[in-house]
Design a protein that fits this description.
The complex is a heterodimer. By secondary structure, chain A is of the alpha/beta class. Chain A contains 10 helices and 9 strands. In chain A, strands 5-6-7-3-8-9 form a 6-stranded mixed β-sheet, with helices on both faces. A 3-stranded antiparallel β-sheet of chain A has the order 2-1-4. In chain A, strand 6, helix 6 and strand 7 form a beta-alpha-beta unit. The radius of gyration of chain B is 23 Å and the shape is globular. The two termini of chain B are 42 Å apart. Classes of the chains: A alpha/beta, B mainly alpha.
Chain lengths: 282, 519
């Protein structure tokens, strides 16, 4: 099953708080080709999550358009083609692990999935033996893994993730990153990952979008072309750190403006040098 | 301590309290024997068992049917209000009226309009409706908003969200509503029997026994009613304990937002408010139209206006009414504050000293289900006919519902929240201040809503049966004189007064909300 392209075109969104309009997203355009892996980075509160909520039809845009596979988010989400994992696991406390993973099928009104498949997902996220456990009996990291398994349950063609690994410890996070890369490589769902981890973004994505403080605009669009599969050794590669440092400079309010100008100039002038070099070294 | 140890300690405490009662009764410590020893009450009960049986059966029948019907209507209403918030606002007037109408004022009116058994079941159902409806609605709306998002993200509509998430998430709240509703059904049944001239029922039995100065018989009847209500309470409480432990486990309960009204057009708001006010009048008019009664005994809204404002009875009616209100209103406000404070103190106690609380709960339940009409003559003997008896009776009708809701709120606080402050070595008092009180805020408002209008009922019962003052007395007199205009007027005025008190809670809620942060 192929991924579906995800297109934001001139999207704006404002919230009204105590009668005043608070612009959250300002004329943002972003094109995620089918099967691509895009990471979104930006200062907290910049509107990343709102972007994701728009793509899930949980909010509607004030202007501009949003298309998933040429269709509206609402109808695509109803077809079960979109998988979602939030920062918070949002598990139903009265359901067991397997029942929670099964939830999307029930929401979509489909028949129960093959238990083999659910077991496969549970094994994938390393929770074998916890099929019958309730969320209250699991640690925070384990709950988050259930949420990730749930996001994969419908074999989505688009995967939207809002800091899904935020609650995990570093080792587990690395492990889950590897898993996510493997899953993505195998099925190639179009993936949009919101994260605070610069290294995580660079490690996983084809390109990293850096957003401005609220209202969100695209500050920089950085292609990442390290060859795949990417192993743990990439984390020690100087080229990897070079890309991370550039992004860190963009996110740092002190240096952000200058870096963004340089970044735009570089984008206009020629293909970015560092990832090209990295591509050859990896 | 182990579970078994807990139960044992609770049992021992209860036995100690019962022993204290027995001793006080044997030695006639309380007001010269108005509190008979428990053994005397039980012996008499055992001896008169055959006499009790048909009365118990009648009350059980009325209360059970009222409980079932009231809860079914309440759940259907809560689900509708959750799905269509506008419906809640249109029916707000009806809801408040259904809740605040003092049953003693309504019983004679219902008996006029319906046949006896239907009137009694209606009254029991009416008392059941509001606690279950408010608790269920709060529960339905308290579903984890992130889980709501998740279901919506997979294209689930309001119905699927209701089915997969909200109903199950609301279960503890619904069951806490049942806990309040079960004793209310019994109280409604007994009050209706008392006021409707039924042949059988504990209320009738009580009425027949009132004249005979036999406290042990009165206590026997009261305890029997208590046992019936306690059974319903215990069943709901057991179920609630089972479901709460599962719901509690994961996240601190973030309430879903109340339906947004801030950006609403003024015209729409005004229309909804008008609909809310007109709806009860509409239903009132429609019911009388349907019952097809003489306008002399069944007053329509216009009939009441004629009686009180435009007709030739107006001057006398107004004088009597205003005099009664001047006596009733101040004591109602005092009683309602005391009742709410008492409930909060009790809920804190149940949180800080659960063991003691579990031992006291059966006795608190007694004050609930012991029909107030039975308790009042006894209270008069103990406390006299002054202001104290009114206040005590008012507290006893207001505190219980508020207490159950608050205790439930405390129980819903996740362990992790307490672990955090425990780690800093917080005292119990500090834990209460830092975690329990803020986390239970939303429940405090539910509790206040349940308690405030009940205050008027307590005051009116006390006035009617004990002090011979105010609105309660006016109602009692009017029943004696067959002054139908005044019966209807008192019912309407008491509802309006309760609505006014009820409107105090949104003000409190607004004050409490000012520090809420914007997400």
């Amino acid at each position: 099953m192929q991924g579906l392209p995800l297109q934001f075109t001139n999207v704006s969104k404002a919230f009204s708080i105590k009668g005043k309009a608070l612009p959250v997203i300002d004329n943002l355009s972003l094109d995620c080709p089918a099967g691509s892996f895009t990471a979104l980075l930006g200062p907290s509160g910049c509107g990343k999550s709102t972007l994701l909520r728009l793509a899930l039809a949980l909010e509607s845009e004030d202007s501009g358009s949003l298309r998933i596979g040429g269709d509206s988010p609402r109808s695509i989400c109803r077809s079960g083609a979109v998988g979602v994992a939030f920062q918070d696991a949002a598990l139903l406390p009265w359901r067991s692990v397997e029942e929670n993973i099964r939830l999307p099928f029930e929401v979509l009104g489909r028949k129960r999935p093959d238990p083999e498949k659910i077991n496969g997902l549970i094994e994938l996220v390393g929770l074998k033996g916890f099929e019958k456990a309730r969320p209250g009996e699991l640690s925070g990291g384990m709950r988050q893994r259930v949420a990730i398994a749930r996001s994969l349950a419908t074999e989505p063609r688009v995967l939207l993730m809002d800091e899904p690994f935020g609650a995990l410890d570093l080792i587990l996070r690395r492990q889950m990153n590897l898993e996510l890369q493997r899953i993505w490589s195998a099925k190639r769902p179009t993936t949009l990952l919101i994260t605070h981890g610069i290294d995580e973004a660079v490690y996983l994505a084809d390109r990293v979008i850096v957003l401005s403080p609220r209202p969100a605009r695209v500050l920089a669009d950085i292609p990442v072309s390290f060859s795949r599969p990417r192993g743990a050794e990439l984390l020690r590669d100087p080229a990897f750190h070079h890309v991370c440092d550039r992004i860190a400079a963009l996110l740092d309010p002190e240096t952000s403006a200058a870096s963004a100008a340089a970044e735009t100039a570089a984008l206009d002038a020629a293909p970015v040098a560092a990832p090209a070099k990295a591509g050859t070294t990896a | 301590m182990t579970r078994f140890g807990d139960h044992l300690a609770t049992g021992v405490l209860i036995l100690l309290l019962l022993a204290a009662w027995e001793v006080a009764g044997q030695l006639k410590l309380v007001a010269d024997g108005t509190l008979p020893p428990l053994s005397a009450i039980l012996l008499r009960l055992a001896a008169e068992w055959r006499e009790y049986w048909p009365h118990v059966a009648a009350t059980l029948y009325t209360a059970s049917l009222g409980f079932l019907i009231g809860n079914a209507v309440a759940l259907a209403a809560a689900v509708s209000f959750c799905l269509w918030p506008v419906a809640e606002r249109v029916f707000r007037g009806v809801n408040i009226a259904a809740f605040t109408v003092p049953p003693i004022a309504l019983a004679p009116v219902l008996v006029i309009a319906l046949d006896g058994e239907t009137a009694r079941i209606t009254l029991a159902a009416l008392l059941v409706y509001f606690p279950t409806m408010t608790a269920a609605l709060a529960g339905l709306r308290s579903a984890d908003p992130r889980a709501v998002d998740l279901i919506r993200a997979y294209g689930g509509g309001p119905l699927r969200t209701l089915w997969l998430l909200r109903l199950r998430a609301a279960l503890p709240a619904i069951l806490s509503g049942f806990q309040v509703a079960a004793p209310a059904a019994v109280l409604g049944a007994v009050l209706a029997e008392f006021g409707s001239g039924a042949r059988w029922g504990l209320g009738t039995f009580l009425l027949g026994s009132l004249g005979r100065a036999e406290p042990d018989r009165l206590w026997g009847i009261g305890l029997t009613a208590t046992a019936i209500a306690g059974l319903g309470y215990a069943l709901s409480a057991t179920l609630a304990a089972r479901t709460t432990s599962l719901n509690r486990a994961v996240n601190i309960g973030i309430t879903g937002p109340e339906p947004e009204t801030a950006n609403e057009a003024p015209l729409r708001r005004a229309l909804l408010l008008a609909a809310a006010i007109l709806m009860p009048l509409l239903i009132w008019q429609a019911m009388l139209f349907w019952a097809d009664l003489s306008p002399i005994i069944a007053k329509t809204p216009m009939g009441v206006i004629d009686y009180l404002i435009t007709g030739k009875t107006a001057a006398s009616a107004q004088t009597r009414l205003l005099a009664a209100l001047a006596e009733t209103v101040p004591i109602t406000i005092a009683g309602m504050l005391l009742g709410l404070g008492f409930a909060f103190a009790l809920a804190l106690l149940s949180f800080a000293a659960p063991l003691l609380m579990r031992a006291l709960l059966p006795f608190a339940l007694v004050t609930q289900t012991m029909p107030l009409v039975a308790l009042t003559p006894l209270a008069v003997l103990i406390l006299g006919r002054g202001i104290t008896v009114t206040l005590v009776i008012t507290i006893s009708v207001t505190f219980f519902a508020a207490f159950v809701v608050l205790a439930q709120g405390f129980a819903m606080i996740p362990k992790a929240a307490f672990d955090l402050v425990d780690a800093y070595g917080a005292s119990t008092l500090r834990k209460v201040r830092l975690i329990a009180i803020p986390a239970s805020r939303q429940w405090l408002f539910v509790a206040a809503r349940l308690a405030l209008p009940k205050a008027l009922l307590g005051v009116m019962i006390a006035e009617w049966l004990a002090t011979g003052k105010g609105l309660g007395n006016l109602l009692n007199q009017s029943r004696g004189y067959l002054d139908y205009g005044m019966i209807w007027t008192v019912a309407v005025v008491s509802i309006l007064l309760s609505v006014l008190l009820y409107q105090l809670t949104p003000v409190l809620e607004w004050v409490g909300r000012s520090d809420r942060r914007v997400r």
